[in-house]
Amino acid sequence: MQFRMSSNKILITIFLCFFSATSILSQEIFPPFSRGKEELRLPDQSPLVLFDVLNFISEESGKSRLDIHYRISYDFFVFVKNIPFNASSPYIARTEIGVEILDKNNMSVAREFVRKEIKLLESPSQTTKQQFLEGMLSLNLPPGEYSLVTEVNDLESTRKYLDTKKKVTLKNFSNDSLEVSDILFLELLSRNDSTILTPINHGGDVPFGRNFDGYFEVSLGNHSDDSLRIEYALTKYSSERRSFNPVLGNEANVYSQDTSIRLEHIEDEFRYSAAGSYRKGKYGCWLHFRGDTLRLGDYELEVKVYTPNFLKSEKRKFRIRWFDMPLSLRNLQFAIDALEYIAPDSILEQLRKARGEKQQQLFEEFWRQRDKTPTTTFNEVMEEYYRRVDYAYMNLNTIRERNGAKTDRGKAYILYGPPAKIVREFAPSLPPKEIWYYPNLQKKLIFIDESRKGEYKLLTTAEL
Asked: Residue 47 pLDDT > 90, yes or no?
């Protein structure tokens, strides 16, 4: 496939390879919760603090630009009451985020610090764990090798994050040779002069089921526009072969426009926006990826830029990760057992007897037949089912049955979802009752606790 940039006649040749897909439940990517058959524990969480470092062409002559993206979980901070009291933000946390650049002699050559306030309307205990402080710092430095020190301080406590081990090499984009920048992943947005571009800021990883753009910059030096050729390859790691191996089935498109990324600095905030093309000999190049067709796992993206006598390449390793995957999906044996309410006995027996990759393939095939969007890897029906399993496991257990998904109420919740209304009846001479109402199904479920120990059993199902 070939195309030309509208104003510079750059020939782009696409060489696309896709590599072997491991299961959607790859144990290497998402370790099981426990070794017990029916015990769920919270998985290892992503780090509370993530930094991603990228090198691009600088607008300052003789310099190279270093962009540092940060993503910090709200769980890192200690929230206190806002004094003086502010009804719109009664809780607040304060932090200082800094980077320092050291040369080969460990001498400081540049630093950048920013202070942030995080305001909450509700008590910190009521906030979700999916809230993050995100932003970017940027520095322009001479090309060369440096050490990067990143630091985050919680100003309401003694909590501190410090990393002194990161090494960075800033490329020389201003000489006569061919050079390629790092590769940035962005949210998929239309590009125009007023568009604010949003990086996918997960420490280099990409969320499962999401389409995204890749962006990189090319400096031609003294090479001719007409001689430029670009190839890229996307590859996937196979845990069984312990190598990157090709498979079929993914779609991706390449496009390049006279559009580059502009770095804006407004007050203490850096951000990206779409801009016109770079000055002659420097270009912004775009890749579009159908991320919703990519499976979970480890990937490598390689870009190769050719002129008749030179080749430059740039690689980026990343993961496709399902950050909020239902807990019950992370242990394949547990996920199979949880199918007892919807899978025939013959299918369950087949799944339980299978081993290794065959078992995973059968499990995926079971859900593929129920997928409402079969052209994508994300299965909404499967996700909803296991969200319900998670809720039942954690909230509908009893003294005798730790796994709430195996109780009568758990079964009802998994099959029908949350009831529109729950009525509880207590009387001194009668066992407690719970009545679950499902107006959309025109039925109500009546549970009774004969033992008076929370052991609710389904008494009857009645029409509304």
From this structure: no
399-419 average pLDDT score = 95
CB-based burial label for 276 (10 Å; 0-12, 13-18, 19+) = exposed
Residue 347 sits at φ, ψ, to 5 deg, of -70, -45
* Contact predicate 422/430, CB 8 Å: no
Query: Dihedral, CA atoms, 322, 324, 327, 330, nearest 10 degrees?
Result: 10
Task: Report which of 36, 22, 23 is spatially closest to residue 367, judged by C-alpha positions.
Answer: 23
Last residue of one domain, picked from the residues 298, 321, 344: 321
334-346 pLDDT, tens digit each? 999 999 999 999 9
Residues 20 and 159 in one domain: yes
What is the dihedral sign for C-alpha 188, 193, 196, 198? positive
Q: 457: closest CA among 407, 405, 391?
A: 407
pTM above 0.85, yes or no: no
Distance CA 210, CA 203 (A): 16
In a domain, 96, yes or no: no
Number of domains in the chain: 2
* Cα-only R_g, the chain: 27
- The single-letter DSSP state of residue 83 is S
Domain span at residue 309 reads 2-72+153-321
Alpha-carbon gap, residue 174 to 215, rounded angstroms? 20
Give the strand pairing for 64-73 and 132-141.
antiparallel
Residue 119 lies in a domain: no
Question: Is 132 domain-assigned?
Answer: no
